[in-house]
Amino acid sequence: MARPVITNKIGVIVDSFQVGVKEGLRKAKEAGADGVQIYAVQGEFDPANLSPAVRREWKDYIASLGLEISALVGDLGGHGFQDPAQNRAKIDKSKRIMELAKELGTDIVTTHIGIVPPDRDSQIYETMHIACEELSRYAHEMNAYFAIETGPETAAHLKMFLDGLGTKGVSVNFDPANMVMVTGDDPVQGVHALKDYIVHTHAKDGVKLAEIDPRNVYGQYGYEAPALDHEKVAEMAETGQAFREVPLGTGSVDWNGYLQALNDIGYKGYLTIEREVGSNPEADIRLAVEFLKGFRA
Questions:
Q1: What backbone phi and psi angles, to 5 degrees, belong to 22?
Q2: What pLDDT sits at residue 74?
Q3: What is the band of 62 on the pLDDT scale with cuts at 50, 70, 90?
Q4: In angstroms, what CA-CA distances link 221 with 114, 126, 155?
């Protein structure tokens, strides 16, 4: 396949640098990124910790670096939206993160909602549907997107779930590596299946070493495995027996085919680099920016 030519902006997840938001923003700029994604779940970017004045200061500071925000991360972890006892608080916090995103100049918040069960008649499926329907309406009304990260289930199954929500406020943050590493789904086919929903992407690479039940990675309400824990998943991606996250361009993601597929569906949004493992994430991120820039004309 001929090498595709892309015009997409390149982003970096600030938290991947592991040096705090302010220093991470500077490093993203130095690495040559156009924009950044920032975790807004806890710590200095938790909406509850940001007064209106501080929000304006952050927005001005990011603009002063010549960066824009591609999205916020609003992933609340745990069982996503599978536990009815926790959903009211999680839905409300998700709404606050979406409001913060709009104030900071982005329409997108990315998240994990938990694995969509294969059985549409299951209690977990219904619980997730009810929560996502409310979030989808809320996002739609404010012209925003609550974007589910791909990986825990196949693209076809995720599309079926999204089609049932009625609005596109809940949409997709496409992560090709998650698909390659866990379900073994084909990212190229996945892009075409989810073409009506993709609003943001993560640029990440990986390899699948053995079969693994997605519930043992992402957890599931009522299942014996622990709930989603990002540190645990990162450890699995670095030293586990089932899959590994690797530097961009060195794994099983077919970048020529994947980027061509994004071109084919008319995707103009960000390619945002995520690096969750490795002893020198800054070096890996710099290489990733150069790798993606190699697809520009």
A1: -65, -50
A2: 97
A3: very high
A4: 9, 13, 21
Residue that has been written with the tokens 């603009």 in this structure: 63
Q: Which tens digit of pLDDT belongs to each residue from 224-253?
A: 878 878 888 889 999 989 999 999 999 999
Of the two residues 261 and 229, the one the predictor is more confident about is: 261
Choose among 91, 89, 93: nearest CA to 134: 91
CB 11 within 8 A of CB 70: yes
Tens-digit pLDDT profile for residues 93-132: 999 999 999 999 999 999 999 999 999 999 999 999 999 9
Report the C-alpha gap between 251 and 55 in whole angstroms.
38
Tell me the C-alpha distance between 147 and 150, whole Å.
Answer: 9
Quick count: other Cβ atoms within 10 Å of Cβ 251? 21
Q: What are 11's strand-pairing partners? A: 35, 272
Per-residue pLDDT reduced to its tens digit, 123-171? 999 999 999 999 999 999 999 999 999 999 999 999 999 999 999 999 9
| Residues sharing a CB contact under 8 Å with residue 178, sequence separation 6 or more, in sequence order | 149, 150, 151, 152, 202, 204, 206
Question: Which residues, other chains included, contact 274 with Cβ-Cβ below 8 Å and sequence gap of 6+?
Answer: 13, 16, 175, 202, 203, 204
In contact, 289 and 12? CB cutoff 8 Å: yes
Residue count of the chain, please give it.
297
Structure tokens at 112: 């994990």
pTM of the predicted model as reported, rounded to 2 decimal places: 0.96
List of domains in the chain: 10-294 (3.20.20.150)
